Each structure stands twice: as structure tokens, then as C-alpha cells.
Amino acid sequence: MKRIAVLTSGGDAPGMNAAVRAIVRKGIYEGFEVYGINYGYAGLVAGDIRKMEASDVGDMIGRGGTFLYSARYPEFAHREGQEKGIEQLKKFGIEGLVVIGGDGSYQGAVALTKLGFPTIGVPGTIDNDIPGTDYTIGFDTAINTVLEAVDRLRDTATSHVRTFIVEVMGRNAGDIALWTGIGSGAEQILIPEQEFDIAEVAKDLKRGRLNGKKHTIILLAEGVMSGDEFAKKLWEYDEDFHTRVTVLGHVQRGGSPTARDRVLASRLGAKAIDLLKEGVGGVCVGVRGEEVVYNDIVETLANGKHVPNLELYQLNKEISF
Ligand code: ADP
Ligand code: F6P
């Protein structure tokens, strides 16, 4: 294998640039020619592909977003799109591909693998919802961004003795809410992986007020319901609950990656190159504990499931009253 390519796909995540940098630099170091594909699978099918030099990734390690751009391109779920993509790769003489993205992007990598094209998945999403890894690139930065915002909300919540519902991203996963709930000392954490009873939530909130709490913060994962819906539910349960809702939205996806995300991105990007050098494709890289690991991508997506650490959920109940 002489020539390889990299693309970023799906929702962008801080640290994607650091991963591309590692792939380009380590790839060149190992003797590959490395190509960058713009706009994810859309750019792959369109042939928006260019050769990258080491200098193209200069000053990229700390930059948020993805300088290769990203796209949602549903057409890639169809075989026709996938075959066109492989045609383009062959046209450029590319023999291996690294895909940095979330679970949707991994499905694209699985499709290419099944069609016989050596593809490696690198987990890049703020959601931390990909099987085969403890952490995804971008998660650490996103939770630090959320924490900063919640700390600010707490100031105003305390001043007015108010209840704030903070809706955070994560799609169907609760990790962002779980980690930032613990980190901000939130009174309640609501995640899709854990059922809740509105009566219990209301009782807990009231007890906190009776105990003299001056603020109440509820970290709500978007996968449970929207902040407005939850505010309505609380109010319907008891008209005493006048809440304020903050939807943090896409601010969670931006910003310079944290040290942890930069290091994770560099390690995982470099591992993808090591694997391609050994002729290994059809896998996804990740981190388990402190170890960089890799697994069969088809099997991982078919049978693996990311499960949040529910010990954290229980811990919050024990220390947030
Ligand atoms: P993420 O990778 O962040 O989860 P998406 O779910 O939007 O984001 O997926 C990113 C892209 O991956 C999609 O726009 C599409 O191009 C491709 N993709 C998603 N699902 C599939 C699938 N089942 N088969 C092939 N490609 C897919
Ligand atoms: O997957 C990353 C993510 O930010 C999710 O947390 C969120 O549900 C979704 O993407 C938002 O997608 P879009 O940027 O297309 O609005």
C-alpha cells in the first residue's frame, strides 16, 4: 500500500483536525502518500480529493472544526454511492482510507469494508456514543464547554433562586449530560439510558429547596426530550415549577480541543497508520483504559453498544441532594 486517504464525516468534533494532522504526518513518516478528501462522503463521491503535504497540517492541532469540512450525505447509504466512492479512490490510486466520524460515518466505513476496500474508523464525535472505545475525539472538549456554561448559569440561578433546565447534545446518548451533571454538581441528570419518574424528580427538587438550596440545575440530554417539553411536564405536574430553559446547541461542537482530545486524536490517528502499514483494514481504533486498541469494524457495529457509566448516575444521586 503506497497511497492512502483521510476524510472527516458527520457532525464535526474538536480534535478532528489534530487527528488529520497525525494521519498526514505519521503517514508521510511511514512512507505513504496521503490524500485529503473534502466534505466527507459527498466529496469522496464527487472526487474532491487532493494530495497533502506535512505543511498542510501546520497550525492545525489546536484548531476546532474540521479543515477538511464535513457533510451529511445520506446518498452514501446506498450501494450506488458507495461504488462511486470506490471508483474515485481507484482513479486516484488510493488503496486505503481512514474515516474520522461518528456512528453514521462508521456505517459508511462498514459498507466500504464489505465491498472489499480497506477502511479504518477513527471515533470523532462529541456524543461519546461509539462502540469499541471508552472515549471519542471531541467529547472531552464538549463537556468542558458545557461545564463553563453551566457554571455561569449557576451564578444567575443562585441570584434569583431559580431552577434551570440545561438541554445538552448527545443525540441518543446521555454521556454529555452525565459527565457535565457530575462535574457541575447538578441536582438532576436525565439521560435516555435511564428511566425516570417525574413525581420522583419533582420530590427531589422540592426537598433540595426545603434544605436551603438556592439554585437547581437539571442536566437534560436531548435524547430524553427537549428542554421546553420537560419544563412543560414539570409545570403540568406542579404549577409551582417555574423554570428557565437553556439550550446550549452547537456551541458544544466548537472551540479549540482540550489537551486530552489532542492527545487522543494524535494517538488514534497514528494507530490507523500503523494498521494500514501492516495491511490491516476493516477495523476501528479506540482507547480502553490507557491502551490504544482496534477491533473488527463490522462486528463492533453489529454487536457492540456504547453503554454510559451508570455508576456516575448513581453517584450523582448520592452527592447532589
Ligand atoms: P455521525 O457520523 O456523526 O454519526 P451521520 O449519522 O450524519 O453522522 O453520518 C454521517 C454520514 O455517514 C452520513 O451523512 C452518510 O454520508 C454516512 N452514512 C450514514 N449512515 C450510513 C449507512 N447506513 N451506510 C453508509 N453510509 C452512511
Ligand atoms: O452527533 C453530533 C451532534 O452534535 C449531536 O449531538 C446532535 O444531535 C446532532 O449532531 C446535531 O446535528 P446537526 O449539526 O445536523 O444539527
Automatic annotation (TrEMBL):
Q: What is its EC number?
A: 2.7.1.11
Active site feature: 127
Q: Mind listing the UniProt keywords for this protein, alphabetically?
A: Allosteric enzyme, ATP-binding, Cytoplasm, Glycolysis, Kinase, Magnesium, Metal-binding, Nucleotide-binding, Transferase
Q: How is its activity regulated?
A: Allosterically activated by ADP and other diphosphonucleosides, and allosterically inhibited by phosphoenolpyruvate.
Q: Report residues binding substrate.
A: 125-127, 162, 169-171, 222, 244, 250-253
Q: Which cofactor does it need?
A: Mg(2+)
Instruction: State where the protein is found.
Output: Cytoplasm
Residues involved in ADP binding: 21-25, 154, 185-187, 213-215
Query: Binding positions for Mg(2+)?
Result: 103
Q: Which Gene3D superfamilies does UniProt cross-reference here?
A: 3.40.50.450, Phosphofructokinase domain
Tell me which residues make up the Phosphofructokinase domain. 3-276
Pathway named in the protein's UniProt entry: Carbohydrate degradation; glycolysis; D-glyceraldehyde 3-phosphate and glycerone phosphate from D-glucose: step 3/4
Q: Does the keyword Metal-binding apply?
A: yes
Family matches, as InterPro entries: ATP_PFK, ATP_PFK_prok-type, PFKA_ATP_prok, Phosphofructokinase_CS, Phosphofructokinase_dom, PKF_sf
What is this enzyme's catalytic activity, as reactions? beta-D-fructose 6-phosphate + ATP = beta-D-fructose 1,6-bisphosphate + ADP + H(+)
The biological process GO terms on file are: canonical glycolysis; fructose 1,6-bisphosphate metabolic process; fructose 6-phosphate metabolic process
GO cellular component: a single term: 6-phosphofructokinase complex
- GO molecular function list: 6-phosphofructokinase activity; AMP binding; ATP binding; fructose-6-phosphate binding; identical protein binding; metal ion binding; monosaccharide binding
User: Mind telling me which Pfam families this protein's record contains?
Assistant: PFK (PF00365)
What residues does ATP bind to? 11, 72-73, 102-105
Oligomeric state and interaction partners are given as:
Homotetramer.
**Can you tell me which family this protein belongs to?**
Belongs to the phosphofructokinase type A (PFKA) family. ATP-dependent PFK group I subfamily. Prokaryotic clade 'B1' sub-subfamily.
Q: What does this protein do?
A: Catalyzes the phosphorylation of D-fructose 6-phosphate to fructose 1,6-bisphosphate by ATP, the first committing step of glycolysis.
Specify the protein name: ATP-dependent 6-phosphofructokinase
- What is the originating organism of this protein? Granulicatella elegans ATCC 700633
